[in-house]
Specification:
This protein is of the alpha/beta class and 554 residues long. The chain is 31% helix and 31% strand. The chain is built from 17 helices and 26 strands. A hairpin with a 2-residue loop joins strand 25 and strand 26. The chain is flat.
Length: 554
């Protein structure tokens, strides 16, 4: 007889379910139908085309959910209709299509990071759980190097870009500057100057280094500077100008050069003799008379006056790097000598992505790239995004199946242009950039009379988490905290002096989750797994939920 009641319930849903978001009958919601034993079920279910059509009003006739909130509104109603006799504790893992563009995660630090290696070191320690394909916008302090273009540099640029920009290139090579009057046939735009920097300087800096490049101009001003970051293949304009640190300005005189020559000619006859002969410091690395930064610093320490601890000197001297120009070095007086000041420290924001376990700079499509691909508006759209994949094939002619390229590009849709990010995969024949519609799944549970999203996050403690907890609780629980830091496991033997009982363990979870997920919303659940020692090394899992702003056991 019970089976007949089940069938009638199902048939009732079929005949009365005209409006999918209309509440199920009160009797079914309250699970108080006489003679019916509600069951606890566990199921895996994937939305079908027919299911999306059922909710076409709520989904605007598209076969995916625009966001997770909409999924969490529709799917519980769907489950209530599909499983009318399932009760408390039932679980369904629902698969569905979700609009999920790659988003930027933001992080910041006051640490000074040197190049990509420094960035990678920081993220490896502070974001160990990042998966491949994660994009991070990181703000940090960086050492800024300085470079001033010489006449020889303009000649190099002129030769490199003569075919592409004949008039501007010839003018730059002839006059040693960039024409900046936009009405002139010799005009250099910002994008063209970036191309010039790639032609001149690419490969001379390590990935991630930041350099302030100054150059002569003919236009509204006589000189300009760009602050650039080298991404390993080309320069990215960071969009701000670096202001040099103030200090005592000092320009070397002929007497200073004579004193430097006298002090260094014994051990460095070539460089010192060349300075004596030509009155300039040869900074060409290929020259027999090359002055390294260390040698220049040694010479400057011979002639600069004694200063107070921490004083800054901004020193200008004459160099030769194909032509004669000046160079500036910022020095700080420390412990009785001048040292190179850690350049100019400034806040830098850059975007990196995790690829094959390493942090890398994504390939940023430039104006020149869009021009090359015939995209005159400097972006892609739904009809031209395929060109991005063709471009990658030409960019990486020796790619192997499984290689991944992280990319950053401009995309036009619905009347607006936005910056998008993605990880394109090479299958051995072509590159494929994943679409914004992904197949995903989420677990829903029947709790307190209704279907709700089960938002439990599974988290396994990392080495950095152990250090965090041990350090935070060492004063309150010196024995257990010290033991945890040393053995990397929680002692769960109640006979031990280093015992972590459930209450103390909960304090540890509060320290951990308040640091790792400080913005967690009320009701967020975690399944925290950790290594424990019970006489043997085992893995335990505790379940906590954020309640009234603190983490408590579920």
């Amino acid at each position: 007889m019970k089976k007949i009641i089940y069938y009638l319930l199902v048939l009732g849903v079929v005949f009365t379910g005209c409006n999918p978001l209309e509440d199920i009958t009160d009797d079914i919601q309250e699970r108080e139908i006489e003679g019916v034993d509600f069951i606890k079920g566990v199921e895996q279910y994937t939305f079908t085309d027919e299911d999306y059509e059922t909710y076409e009003g709520e989904l605007d006739s598209i076969a995916y959910f625009l966001n997770q909130d909409l999924a969490d509104l529709v799917i519980p109603d769907f489950l209530a209709n599909k499983y009318p006799v399932w009760g408390e504790g039932s679980l369904v893992n629902v698969g569905y299509n979700l609009y999920s563009p790659t988003l930027l995660e933001t992080m910041s630090t006051t640490e000074t990071l040197a190049g990509l290696s420094g960035i990678e070191g920081y993220l490896s320690s502070n974001y160990e759980t990042a998966s491949n394909g994660t994009f991070v916008e990181l703000t940090y302090n960086a050492e800024v190097l300085a470079y001033e273009l010489s006449s020889a540099d303009f000649e190099t640029i002129g030769a490199a870009l003569a075919d592409k920009y004949p008039n501007p290139a010839d003018n730059a090579a002839s006059y040693g500057n960039f024409g900046r009057w936009d009405s002139s046939s010799s005009y250099w735009s910002d994008d063209m100057i970036l191309e010039a920097m790639d032609a001149l300087l690419a490969g001379k800096y390590a990935a991630g280094q930041v350099v302030s490049v100054s150059f002569a101009t003919y236009g509204p001003s006589s000189s300009e500077s760009f602050t650039l970051q080298y991404d390993g293949s080309k320069f990215i304009d960071l969009g701000f100008e670096v202001v040099a640190e103030s200090g005592t300005e000092y320009t070397l005189s002929s007497t200073d050069y004579d004193d430097i020559i006298a002090g260094l000619i014994g051990e460095n006859p070539g460089p010192a003799g060349n300075l004596d002969a030509y009155g300039s410091i040869d900074v060409r690395e290929t020259s027999d008379n090359y002055w390294s930064q260390e040698l220049i610093l040694e010479g400057l320490n011979l002639i600069l006056p004694t200063a107070a601890e921490g004083d800054i000197y901004v020193v200008t001297y004459t160099i030769y790097n194909g032509s004669t120009t000046t160079q500036v070095m910022t020095l700080k007086y420390e412990s009785g000598e001048y040292v190179v000041n850690p350049a100019i420290i400034t806040e830098v924001t850059t975007i990196v992505a995790k690829n094959d376990g390493d942090w890398v700079f994504p390939y940023v499509f430039s104006s020149a790239d869009y021009d090359l691909l015939g995209e005159s508006y400097g972006n892609f759209d739904s009809g031209s995004i395929y060109k991005l994949e063709i471009f990658l094939k030409s960019l990486y002619p020796y790619a192997q199946a499984g290689d991944v390229s992280t990319v950053q590009y401009r995309y036009y849709s619905s009347g607006a242009t936005t910056t998008k990010y993605g990880s394109s995969v090479f299958d051995g024949d072509k590159w494929s950039l994943p679409q914004d519609i992904i197949e995903t799944s989420f677990q829903y549970g029947f709790e307190d009379g209704q279907w709700v999203p089960d938002n439990t996050i599974n988290y396994s403690l990392l080495a950095a988490d152990i250090t965090l907890i041990s350090t935070a609780l060492i004063e309150d629980y010196p024995g257990p905290a010290d033991n945890l830091g040393y053995f990397k496991s929680f002692d769960r033997r109640d006979t031990s002096d280093n015992y972590w009982d459930d209450e103390t363990l909960l304090e540890a979870f509060n320290v951990l989750l308040n640091a790792r997920d400080s913005g967690a919303e009320e009701g967020q659940k975690y399944a925290v797994s950790y290594v424990a020692y019970t006489g043997a090394t085992v893995t335990e899992t505790q379940y906590v939920v954020k309640t009234d702003g603190v983490w408590v056991y579920q």
